[in-house]
Amino acid sequence: MSRFDQIYRKVALTIAGNSAVERLLSEQGKGLAGRFVAGDTPAQAIEAIHKLARSGILHNMDLLGEFVSDPASANANADAVLQMLNEMHAAGIRPYNSIKLSALGQGQQVNGHDLGESNARRIVARAKEFGGFINLDMEDHTRVDITLATFRRLAEEFGHAHVGTVLQSYLYRSEEDLRSLEDLRPNLRIVKGAYLEPATVAMQNKPDIDAAYRRLVYEHLKAGHYCNVATHDHHIIYDVMHFALAYGIPKSQFEFQMLYGVREDFQKELAAQGYTVRSYIPYGTEWYGYYSRRIAERPQNVMFVLRGLL
Q1: Degrees (nearest 5) of the Cα angle 86, 87, 88?
Q2: Which domain holds residue 131?
Q3: Phi, psi of 69, rounded to the nearest 5 degrees
Q4: Among the options 9, 121, 126, 189, which is catalytic?
Q5: Into how many domains does the chain fold?
Q6: Exposed, middle or buried by CB within 10 Å (0-12, 13-18, 19+), for 89?
């Protein structure tokens, strides 16, 4: 990214972490978050699923919330995800959901077990019962090791058809992590990364991040594994299309994933061309952290917020 984009991103995420700014946006910005968040309830989220399905776009549901510090909240979050799986199944929808292990008690020990992993196991088991899939979201760099270890155990138990995880191209370690997971034949979601990470662990320049992104996707596809190409960058999307054609990789081996409310026309265009397109659909009341990262991604999003507030 340019020097301006680097400064903008750092400032935006720093400001978003200010308690006064959080109070202001939490009080006045919820309506604006509707651009990126499907609603507060499972019913509203399911309505969004049906709307996208009419355009040939699939879903990836995400109950908002992260970094809880007590077991009761973690278990409540897990129960809420299980409720969503039940309601999706009842509505005739194959569950495909993302979960954040930090919202499920990751790092908290209960009866000698990591609570985040125990709750994730309950969720993946229910999803498998319904023929569904659970993606373990990746968070900041301090949680990569524990998340990948949890993924390995769940993938060995439930199989790659029912659980996957995420690699972030801006982390220097991600190519090594990709190879370490090779034996699992993993279903991976490749993203650039949305957290404010130090230069000691993460690339800071867009050309480097983009090049690393392509390497991760290409290596994963060439190995014959399923790849979720999660980006709005049309240059990368077109490059992946050409790469797949050049290497004879079928459309059934990858999909494009984008965020709910972002580049919707482009999502519909790709779906119309016969590509699998999946929209990452957040829902729930804990929208502030997710929303602030969307603001930090593009300067244009700040103008959207300011117009709404004024």
Answers
A1: 95
A2: 37-286
A3: -115, 0
A4: 189
A5: 1
A6: middle
Numbers of helices and strands, H then E, in the chain: 13, 10
The span from the first CA to the last CA of the chain, in angstroms, equals 30
Mean pLDDT of the chain: 87
Q: Reply yes or no on whether 189 is catalytic.
A: yes
Among 114, 137, 140, 210, which one carries the catalytic annotation?
A: 137
- Concerning whether 137 is annotated as a catalytic residue, the answer is yes
Spatial separation of the C-alpha atoms in residues 38 and 99, rounded to whole Å: 16
Residues 6+ apart with CB under 8 A from 141: 171, 195, 197, 201, 202
CATH of the domain at 42: 3.20.20.220
Which one, of 66, 8, 17, lies nearest residue 204 by Cα? 8
Residues 6+ away with beta carbon under 8 Å from 53? 59
- In this predicted structure, which of 101-115, 136-150, 288-302 has the lowest mean pLDDT? 288-302
